[in-house]
Structures are given as C-alpha cells and as structure tokens.
Amino acid sequence: MRRAERLFQIIQILRRSTRPVTAAAIAEELEVSKRTVYRDVADLIGQRVPIEGEAGFGYLLSPDYDMPPLMLTPDEIEAVVLGAQWVAGRADPVLATAARDVVAKIASAVPEHLRPYIADPSVSPKPPVDRSGTEIDTRCIRSAIRRGMKLRLLYRSETGDETERTVWPVILGYADTSCLLVVWCETRQDFRHFRTDRMITTEVLGEPHGLRSGELSRRWRIWRQSELAKRGFG
C-alpha cells in the first residue's frame, strides 16, 4: 500500500469509530508496524488533520473534519457496487432506483482509472428470486419507520388466519427470499416479525409511538440479544 493510500485509510479507520482507536488496532488492519502508524499519525497532525490522542491511549478524529467523500479505493467502490446491485434486485422500486442512481453518481465522480471497477466489478450478488406480484409496496413502511409512526397491518399467517395488528415499526430486514418487518406489537406487548409477502394491507396511522429517535431500535437490540442468549448464541 502506498503511503498516500495508507494515510487516507488511517483517516477512514478513525472516521468510522466514536471511540479512541489504538495504534495497535490500526497497525493490525493496515498490516504495518505500530512505529509506522505513530509516524503517519504525526504526519497527519502536521497536515492539520484534527486527530486527538496519543500513543498508548488511542486516537480520535474530530467529528467536524470534512474530507471529500468520494476519495474511494477500488475495494470501497466494489463494496458499494455490490451492495447497490443487491438492493436494486430486492428492494422496493424507489430504493432500487436510488441504488442504481448511487452507482451512476459514483461513476461520474471517481477518476477515469477507477471506473472499470464499476463497469466490470469482480464481485456480484446472487440473482434475486422473482417475487413480483407477491410483495406490498414497502415505501409507506419505510416512511413510518423514519417518522416514528404507528402502522395498522392486516396480516395472513402461515395457516391462513387473518389478524389485524397495530404495530410500532422498527426496521425492515431483507433476505434473498423474503423481507421481514420487525415491530413492537401492541396486541402481544412484545417484539414480533412479520413477513411482507403475507401482509394484505398496511396503513400508516396518524399517531406517533412517542419514543425519542433511536429508542425503539435500542430496545429491539436489547431484546434480540436476550433472545439469542436464551438460544445459546449470546
């Protein structure tokens, strides 16, 4: 790895962490010595990159630091393209179009020598299963999640029973063959998963669930860890 690329990667490592990152951790990821990391960090600080910390404690990058976001490496480009291809083949029409637009914007912004990594990447997701005509439009669900609004679902179970539920949507989970909506169910007073291909209707209610931003997701993560621990995976 060239020195310029290594300096850029150090910034990226610090950028994605909210806690101090030790020189040892940086050295391990970049496969260099700690002495090299100490020297590189000193050089970055000398170039007015706002890095705080010291050897033995760890380093933090100021959250106010602004760096051009499209200084991408070939691996980063292929990671974005792979993710965008997966979304384009499996998400609702709006997200699928957005994924294709992201790739087009990156292609127009990166240097010429990096464009082959977009036009002819070395990685590709598995072709999606055709589920046309079996899924509801998840745009309203995503909107409800972002706005913290309750949903009313008419749902058909695996056995064919239909139930109506008022739920607090947490997150949509996409897989190759299905899409799951994680919710807090008012009827069960617990977290539940509902497959979108079994939803008959969805309605965004004009009523917020009342929790501050991020709180419902935090509670779900705690619940999920508890469930994994019960099954011996914690």
State the gist of this model.
The protein has 234 residues and is an alpha+beta fold. It has helices at 3-15, 23-30, 34-46, 74-90, 93-109, 116-119, 139-147, 215-230; strands spanning 51-54, 58-61, 149-156, 162-174, 179-185, 190-195, 199-208.
Q: What do these coordinates show?
A:
This protein is of the alpha+beta class. It folds into three domains: 3-61, Arc Repressor Mutant, subunit A; 74-119; 139-230, SH3 type barrels. Helix content is 41%, strand content 22%. It contains eight helices and seven strands; from the N terminus they run H-H-H-E-E-H-H-H-H-E-E-E-E-E-H. It has helices at residues 3-15, 23-30, 34-46, 74-90, 93-109, 116-119, 139-147, 215-230, and strands at 51-54, 58-61, 149-156, 162-174, 179-185, 190-195, 199-208. The strands form two sheets. It has a five-stranded antiparallel beta sheet with strand order 6-5-4-3-7. Strand 3 and strand 4 form a beta hairpin. Helix 1 (3-15) packs across helix 3. The longest helix is centred in the middle third of the chain and has 17 residues, at 74-90. It is globular, with a radius of gyration of 22 Å. 18% of the residues are buried.
Write the layout of secondary structure elements.
Elements (H helix, E strand, L loop, with lengths): L2 H13 L7 H8 L3 H13 L4 E4 L3 E4 L12 H17 L2 H17 L6 H4 L19 H9 L1 E8 L5 E13 L4 E7 L4 E6 L3 E10 L6 H16 L4
Antiparallel strand pairs: 1-2, 3-4, 3-7, 4-5, 5-6
